C-alpha cells in the first residue's frame, strides 16, 4: 500500500512543483480571470498526468508490477489515478466554465482582453490555428469520459458491461492527448515540465495504441485445454483443471487471466495449484459472483480450448520472517491451496506455518482436502466455522500462535475481514506495513 501511495503522491507533487517552476504568473495572479488562467493550466496538467499514468499501468508491464508489489497493487493504483483524473478534470472544466457563467449571470464583469502576442515560431502558430478544435474535442471527450469513469467505479454495474465500455477510454485518451498538446501554455515546452508532458503524451499514446490493438499482455498468452470441471457446492464454486501449452511456471499465490469464451473478456483467477513440470496442470477455483461465473457450469465442457495469460501477482509467501500465519475466508482459500502443495513439493525445510481458514459452511470434502494437504506440507491447520466455533478474530489467532510477533501474516478473503484483522494486529503493535500481506483482488 505504501508504494502505491508514494507513487501517486510523487506524480502529483512532482507535477505541481514542476508547474510552479514553469509558471511565474502564479505568484502575480490577483484577479479571478488571472487565477482562472493559471488554475486551468495546473488542473489540466494534473488531470493529464493521472490519465497517462493510468494508461501505462493498464499495460501489465513486468517492471511496473515488480515496482508496486504485484498486479493487484498496480490495478489499485490505476483505480486511484482514475479517480484523480476525474477530480482534476472536473476542476479543470469548472475553472474554464465557472467564470464564463458568472459573467453571463451578471455577477462579475470580464476585464478587457489585450491583443495576443504574435506566435514566436511556426509550431506555436500551428497550435494556435487548431486551438478551437482542441477545445471543442476536449470538452466533448470530457462529457463522454465522466460517465464511463463513474461506471468503472460502481461495482453494481455488471463486469461485462464495464469491460466493453472501458474499451472506449483509449480513444478518449487520444483526444485528451491532442487537447493537452495544443492547449498547454507554449512557454512550458522549454522547461522540465514540458519534458514531463512530452513523456506523458508519448507513453500514454503508446499505451492507448497497444490497448486498441488488443495487445495488452499478448507476450504472456498461451493456449490451453480444459480437462475437468468439478462442482464444489460447499463453497459455491467450481474447480477447473487446465492443461496449458508452454506455460512458464508460477509461484504459489499468483493468478492468471483466463479466457473461457472468445466472446467474453479475460477474467483474473487465482491459481489453486502449485507448478510441477512432471504434471503440467493448472487448477482454478471459480466462485459464482456474477452473471458470467454463475453460467460457467452450464457452458463449460472438458476438451474445449481456452487461453491463459500470466502469471501475475506478488502474493507469493516469500519473505524472511521465521514464522508465517496464513488466514483465509471463503474462496480466499485458493492461493493457500497452491501454497500447501508447493510447500509439500519442496525438499528443503521451510519456516513453520499456522493456517487459519474460516469456512462459510461446513463441508466434509473441503475440510478433508485441506487437512490432507496441510499434513503433507507440515502445516498446522485451524479450521473455523463461525456458527459452530465463533468468529475468527485477531485475539483468537494470537492465542493459538504465541510467537505471533515474530511472524508475517498472509491474508486472502473478504475485504472487511481483512481490514478488521489489519486494525486489530496494528493495535497490538504488529508491524503491519512490513509483515501484513494481502491480495487486493479487485480490478475495478
Overall description:
- 51% of the residues lie in helices and 16% in strands.
- β1 and β2 form a beta hairpin.
- Strands 4-3-6-1-2-5 form a 6-stranded antiparallel β-sheet, covered by helices on one side. A 5-stranded parallel β-sheet has the order 9-8-7-10-11, sandwiched between helices.
- It has 444 residues and is of the alpha/beta class.
- The protein contains 16 helices and 11 strands.
- The chain starts with a helix and ends in a 6-residue tail after the last strand.
Task: Name its key features.
444 residues; alpha/beta; six-stranded antiparallel sheet
Structural class: alpha/beta
The poorly predicted ranges are none
Number of strands: 11
* H/E element sequence: HHHHHHHHHEEEEEHEEHEHEHHEHHE
Spatial strand sequence of the major β-sheet: 4-3-6-1-2-5
The number of helical elements comes to 16
Average pLDDT score: 89
Radius of gyration, CA atoms, in whole angstroms: 26 Å
Strand composition percent: 15-25%
- What is the CA–CA distance across the termini? 17 Å
State the major sheet. Answer: 6 strands, antiparallel
Shape: elongated
**Level of helix content?**
40-55%
Amino acid at each position: 500500500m505504501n508504494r502505491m501511495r508514494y507513487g501517486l503522491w510523487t506524480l502529483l507533487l512532482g507535477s505541481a512543483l514542476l508547474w510552479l517552476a514553469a509558471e511565474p504568473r502564479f505568484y502575480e495572479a490577483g484577479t479571478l480571470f488571472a487565477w482562472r488562467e493559471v488554475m486551468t493550466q495546473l488542473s489540466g496538467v494534473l488531470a493529464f498526468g493521472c490519465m497517462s499514468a493510468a494508461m501505462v499501468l493498464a499495460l501489465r508491464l513486468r517492471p511496473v508490477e515488480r515496482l508496486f508489489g504485484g498486479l493487484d497493487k498496480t490495478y489499485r493504483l490505476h483505480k486511484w489515478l482514475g479517480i484523480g483524473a476525474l477530480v482534476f478534470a472536473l476542476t479543470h472544466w469548472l475553472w474554464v466554465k465557472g467564470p464564463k457563467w458568472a459573467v453571463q449571470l451578471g455577477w462579475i464583469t470580464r476585464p478587457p482582453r489585450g491583443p495576443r502576442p504574435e506566435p514566436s515560431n511556426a509550431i506555436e502558430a500551428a497550435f494556435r490555428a487548431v486551438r478551437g478544435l482542441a477545445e471543442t474535442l476536449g470538452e466533448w471527450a470530457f462529457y463522454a469520459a465522466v460517465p464511463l469513469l463513474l461506471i468503472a467505479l460502481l461495482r453494481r454495474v455488471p463486469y461485462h458491461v464495464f469491460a466493453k465500455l472501458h474499451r472506449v477510454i483509449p480513444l478518449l485518451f487520444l483526444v485528451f492527448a491532442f487537447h493537452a498538446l495544443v492547449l498547454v501554455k507554449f512557454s512550458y515546452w522549454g522547461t522540465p515540465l514540458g519534458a514531463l508532458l512530452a513523456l506523458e503524451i508519448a507513453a500514454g499514446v503508446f499505451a492507448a495504441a497497444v490497448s486498441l490493438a488488443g495487445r495488452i499482455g499478448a507476450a504472456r498468452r498461451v493456449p490451453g485445454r480444459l480437462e475437468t470441471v468439478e462442482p464444489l457446492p460447499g463453497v459455491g464454486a467450481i474447480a477447473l483443471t487446465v492443461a496449458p501449452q508452454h506455460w512458464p511456471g508460477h509461484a504459489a499465490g499468483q493468478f492468471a487471466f483466463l479466457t473461457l469464451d472468445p466472446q467474453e473478456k479475460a477474467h483474473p483467477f487465482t491459481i489453486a495449484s502449485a507448478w510441477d513440470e512432471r504434471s503440467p496442470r493448472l487448477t482454478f477455483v471459480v466462485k459464482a459472483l456474477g452473471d458470467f461465473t454463475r453460467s460457467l457450469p452450464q457452458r463449460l465442457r472438458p476438451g474445449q480450448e481456452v487461453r491463459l495469460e500470466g502469471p501475475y501477482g506478488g502474493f507469493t509467501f516469500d519473505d524472511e520472517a521465521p514464522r508465517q500465519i496464513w488466514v483465509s475466508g471463503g474462496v480466499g482459500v485458493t492461493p493457500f491451496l497452491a501454497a500447501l502443495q508447493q510447500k509439500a513439493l519442496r525438499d528443503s525445510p521451510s519456516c513453520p506455518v499456522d493456517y487459519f481458514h474460516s469456512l462459510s459452511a461446513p463441508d466434509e470434502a473441503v475440510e478433508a482436502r485441506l487437512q490432507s494437504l496441510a499434513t503433507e506440507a507440515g502445516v498446522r491447520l485451524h479450521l473455523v466455522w463461525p456458527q459452530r466455533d465463533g468468529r475468527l478474530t485477531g485475539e483468537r489467532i494470537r492465542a493459538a500462535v504465541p510467537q505471533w510477533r515474530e511472524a508475517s501474516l498472509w491474508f486472502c478473503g473478504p475485504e472487511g475481514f481483512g481490514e478488521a484483522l489489519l486494525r486489530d494486529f496494528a493495535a497490538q503493535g504488529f508491524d503491519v506495513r512490513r509483515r501484513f500481506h494481502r491480495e487486493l483482488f479487485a480490478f475495478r
